[in-house]
């Protein structure tokens, strides 16, 4: 089986932090990295910190870890395992990425950002290490085109579901140049070391599960607008009544992140050839309005529901 002792997760948002915790629990040392903040918080200013202070530079990943430990009590989040996660920022930790057996990209769902990161990674990547993207549905091949052949052979999609530690499914998406051996080794590793149910998917927009899931969520929103149902009514019938108390429509949107959901739906609409398909994946104005107000769901404290 492939040996993965050290991993680097780039992007410490909803998914990156959860994937890091999951790997740490399985015995892997993890560097959890995010951007360097561009502005100080009011608290940092009051404490006389500058943007150069390490606590500020590492703040995004460190805060993500603190949030995880608050929201995932033991035994799901075990402090003994958490010490295997080192939070930091990509700029200061850049050279150490060469030590990673597996680099997982979990940054914002935008092709140009992912391509720019991968192109930069190529200079530090140790040949042989696996590089993967947690994209919800952006073309793996379009990302692979931003790097040369050697890295492309070791690059694939490893799509975890939210929350990564509780959702057993991982979709593996090879690009055209991904070595078959890498796909087989990662499938084995994810099944045996993480206990996942792995499905190898084709590189189609949103792959398999999100293609269906996004369609269902958008169809629900459109029916709701047509019939005048409330958020509570929709969640009552799509959640508890179906025996899924935590995965009702709007609870799910808040958990996923409304901005991420808009990118994921746009990804299918933007690549659709059939006008009917483009219409089915069109995002309603209410969602884009909420995102422009900064109502992104649980991660911003306010989405369809307010976090108390
Ligand atoms: P998020 O918005 O919660 O977090 C993204 C993080 O990436 C942010 O903390 C941001 O600061 C950081 N970032 C952006 N550019 C960066 C860069 N160049 N270098 C380092 N860090 C950078 O997003 P998320 O929900 O965690 O999604 C991450 C990825 O996982 C996306 O591709 C998304 O489509 C996918 N995904 C999301 C879900 C979900 O339910 N949210 C589920 C499966 C897959």
From TrEMBL:
Protein keywords: Fatty acid metabolism, Lipid degradation, Lipid metabolism, NAD, Oxidoreductase
Domain 3-hydroxyacyl-CoA dehydrogenase C-terminal, first and last residues per copy: 207-306
Residues annotated as signal peptide: none
Every 3-hydroxyacyl-CoA dehydrogenase NAD binding domain range: 7-204
Homology family: Belongs to the 3-hydroxyacyl-CoA dehydrogenase family.
Protein name as catalogued: 3-hydroxyacyl-CoA dehydrogenase NAD-binding domain-containing protein
Organism of this sequence: Paenibacillus hodogayensis
Residues of the whole record sequence present: 1 to 308 of 796
């Amino acid at each position: 089986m492939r040996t993965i002792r050290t991993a680097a997760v780039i992007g410490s948002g909803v998914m990156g932090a959860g994937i890091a915790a999951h790997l740490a629990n399985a015995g892997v040392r993890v560097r959890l990295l995010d951007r360097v903040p561009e502005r100080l918080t009011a608290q940092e200013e009051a404490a006389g910190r500058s943007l150069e202070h390490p606590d500020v530079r590492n703040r995004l990943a460190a805060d993500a870890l603190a949030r995880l430990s608050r929201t995932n009590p033991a035994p799901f989040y075990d402090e003994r395992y958490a010490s295997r996660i080192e939070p930091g920022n990509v700029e200061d930790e850049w050279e150490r990425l060469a030590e990673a057996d597996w680099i997982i990209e979990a940054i914002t769902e935008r092709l140009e950002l992912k391509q720019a990161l991968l192109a930069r990674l190529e200079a530090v990547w140790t040949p042989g290490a696996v590089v993967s993207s947690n994209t919800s549905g952006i073309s793996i091949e379009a990302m692979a085109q931003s790097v040369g052949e050697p890295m492309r052979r070791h690059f694939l999609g490893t799509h975890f579901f939210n929350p990564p530690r509780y959702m057993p499914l991982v979709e593996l998406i090879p690009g055209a140049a991904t070595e078959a051996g890498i796909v087989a080794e990662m499938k084995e590793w994810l099944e045996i070391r993480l206990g996942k149910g792995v499905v190898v998917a084709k590189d189609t927009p949103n792959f398999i599960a999100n293609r269906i899931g996004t369609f269902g969520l958008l169809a629900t929103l459109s029916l709701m607008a047509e019939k005048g149902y409330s958020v509570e009514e929709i969640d009552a019938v799509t959640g508890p009544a179906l025996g899924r108390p935590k995965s009702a429509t709007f609870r799910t949107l808040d958990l996923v992140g409304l901005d991420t959901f808009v990118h994921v739906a746009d990804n299918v609409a933007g690549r659709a050839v059939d006008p009917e398909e483009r219409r089915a994946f069109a995002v309603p104005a209410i969602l884009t309005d909420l995102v422009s107000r900064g109502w992104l769901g649980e991660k911003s404290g306010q989405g369809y529901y307010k976090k108390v």
